[in-house]
Design a protein that fits this description.
Thiol Ester Dehydrase, Chain A; 6 strands; single chain; alpha+beta; about 140 residues
């Protein structure tokens, strides 16, 4: 198992790095990730793009789900509710474990803008695989 999931994601997740995601904290119970809200993360009406918000929620899930000694966990299903359009960055997503079983885990994620406005809530269900993250 990788000793530092934050470092691993920042080095190996090229998409996250491309869009500017920073893994700030990652434990088996909690994660915090952030992303700037520049022109590449905005939609046609100059608000946070839904895809950027979803990406941030997914990365909060990934950081938390893979922070422990277990095998790799992959996101199997996400339900996200977009509540408001964010206009001030950086965006921040915080993930909290809801349930962690032998093969399935569920994570609640809140995404906020720099003013602390709740932009979206997500429930991510993941599946632990037989793969080791170092593979």
């Amino acid at each position: 198992m990788v000793k530092d999931i934050k470092q691993h994601l920042m080095e190996q997740d090229h998409f996250a790095r491309h869009v500017g995601v920073i893994v700030e904290e990652a434990t088996p119970e909690y994660s915090r990730v952030s992303m700037p809200l520049g022109e590449n993360q905005r939609n046609g009406v100059n608000l946070a793009h839904g895809g950027a918000i979803f990406t941030l929620a997914d990365l909060a899930f990934a950081a938390l789900a893979n922070a422990g000694p277990e095998s790799v966990a992959l996101n199997a299903q996400t339900s996200i509710s977009f509540l408001r359009g964010g206009s001030h960055g950086p965006l921040v997503a915080e993930g909290r474990i809801r349930h962690s079983g032998r093969t399935l885990l569920t994570v609640d994620v809140d995404v906020r803008d720099a003013d602390g406005v709740l932009l979206a809530t997500a429930i991510c269900t993941g599946c632990r695989t037989s793969r080791n993250i170092a593979d």
